[in-house]
Specification:
354 residues, Isopropylmalate Dehydrogenase, 2 domains, two-stranded antiparallel sheet, binds adenosine-5'-triphosphate, binds magnesium ion, magnesium ion binding, NAD binding, D-malate dehydrogenase (decarboxylating), TTC_DH
């Protein structure tokens, strides 16, 4: 029996278009072994489109991908186009409209990939669960008195009980499937309305999940601990802003931003979820065929998990982990000379040889 999936591809800008084909090739290869067929519809939504037509995506863009089973995104962003355009013109509408309120980022130090931290070894294995649709990244606020000496800017954060409860439930449920420990990022000593509310809801979640241990840490102390001893974490949950910072930091701890994967999940599955490498469009290396495809490939493996095929997802992970552990073929970001295709071919050979 074959299970068919329709995937919306948004290569985006720069190396986005170079790392998605490897991810699709890996999906096809592993799909063959597991009775899964993928058809891909590609959309040219990007900063290039913005430059030509004044919008990252067409007005009915979301409707065009609403009925796909998942979205695979490369990267959006390009010099000359302000970051908030690619963010608010594409990524944030998709995340919000499709209620992808979980941003999930696994952090693992893989054998054969040196971490910048001497102490980080393969026992570093945790996930960052970031709230993805509310919190600090709101549209509420404004600028007053432009050009006057007392000019000011005001930005409101929005934390809703349902919004915080559902991300905490996701984090605690994830911990139940892992080692059963949650650390919540807070800053309730400085941010005195939203963060104490967040802390209260964390305590309530802790009561709902008596089998999970939890504690909270102020974000400033927490980032220091992630650097000093990353092996002590299982699940870290944070608001939109804190989760963003933590997950980029953690990706760096794992060795290279070129490896780090991310999933924007709609846990209710009433809309597609979106999978994207953590890295950006990398204009400095775009077009050279040297980008590390691993972040995109790992993201595709998270897509397999989400679609209900964790064995296939794990096979992808094993395949690239074994390339890293048993060969010295590396892309430039990991100190090697291999191109995107060289590395991808080894992963594909690994899958074919299983
Ligand atoms: P954006 O604004 O789109 O996030 P950025 O410039 O902030 O872009 P990245 O595009 O992630 O960040 O690039 C940061 C650095 O990491 C660059 O030097 C880039 O070449 C490198 N880099 C990012 N992704 C990869 C990759 N997949 N393979 C190799 N190097 C990468
Ligand atoms: Mg960036």
């Amino acid at each position: 029996m074959t299970t068919r999936y329709r995937i919306a591809l948004i290569p985006g800008d720069g190396i986005g278009a170079e790392v998605l084909p490897p991810a699709c090739a890996v999906l096809d290869a592993v799909g063959k072994r597991h009775g899964l067929t993928f058809t891909y519809d590609s959309f040219d939504w990007s900063c290039e489109r913005y430059a030509a037509e004044g919008a990252m995506m067409p007005a009915d863009g979301l409707d065009r991908i609403r009925h796909h089973d998942a979205v695979l995104l490369g990267a959006v962003g390009w010099p000359g186009v302000p970051d908030h355009v690619s963010l608010w013109g594409l990524l944030i509408p998709i995340r919000r409209q499709f209620r992808q309120y979980v941003n999930l980022r696994p952090i693992k130090v893989l054998e054969g990939v040196p971490s910048p931290l001497a102490k980080a070894t393969s026992d570093v294995d945790f996930v960052v669960v970031r709230e993805n649709v509310e919190g600090e990244y709101s549209e509420i606020g404004g600028r007053l008195g432009r050009g006057f000496p007392d000019e000011m800017a005001i930005q409101q954060s929005v934390f809703t009980r349902p919004g915080v409860e559902r991300i905490l439930d996701y984090a605690f449920t994830t911990a139940q499937r892992r080692s059963g420990d949650v650390v919540s990022a807070t800053k309730s000593n400085g941010i005195i309305h939203t963060m104490p509310f967040w802390d209260e809801l964390v305590k309530e979640a802790g009561d709902r999940f008596p089998d999970v241990t939890w504690r909270q840490e102020h974000i400033d102390a927490l980032v220091a601990k992630v650097v000093l001893d990353p092996s002590r974490f299982d699940v870290i949950v944070g608001s939109n802003l804190f989760g963003d910072i933590l997950s980029d930091l953690a990706a760096a701890v794992a060795g290279s931003i070129g490896i780090a994967p991310a999933a924007n999940l709609n846990p209710e599955r009433d809309h597609p979820s979106m999978f994207e490498p953590v890295h950006g469009s990398a204009p400095d290396i775009a077009g050279q065929g040297v980008a590390n495809p691993l972040g995109a490939i790992w993201s595709a493996s998270m897509m397999l998990d989400h679609l209900g095929h964790p064995e296939a997802g794990a096979e992808v992970l094993d395949s690239f982990a074994s390339v890293l552990a048993t060969t010295d073929v590396r892309t430039r970001d990991l100190g090697g000379t291999a191109g995107t295709k060289d590395f991808t071919n080894l992963v594909l050979e690994g899958i074919a040889g299983r």
